[in-house]
Design brief:
Length: about 70
């Protein structure tokens, strides 16, 4: 099973797939909200084609994705 991060402000990735930015599909998981309010993916539904999504990786690099639909 996929377990989202305990910190509602953080997203994590499914280690059974590709690392974000590597070839292949990467699965990123996080919460939309919590008992304290909005979480990391609260505004996910607001994304539109052309928007950029930045993923900060543990090694200090940032991978940039573009929303297509």
């Amino acid at each position: 099973s996929l377990v989202p991060p305990d910190d509602f402000a953080e997203a994590g990735w499914f280690t059974g797939g590709a690392v974000p930015g590597a070839p292949g599909p990467a699965v990123i998981a996080g919460h939309v909200d919590s008992f304290e309010g909005p979480a990391v993916f609260f505004r996910l539904a607001d994304l539109q084609a052309g928007d950029r999504v930045l993923v900060d990786r543990a090694d200090g690099t940032t991978v940039v994705f573009t929303v297509t639909s």
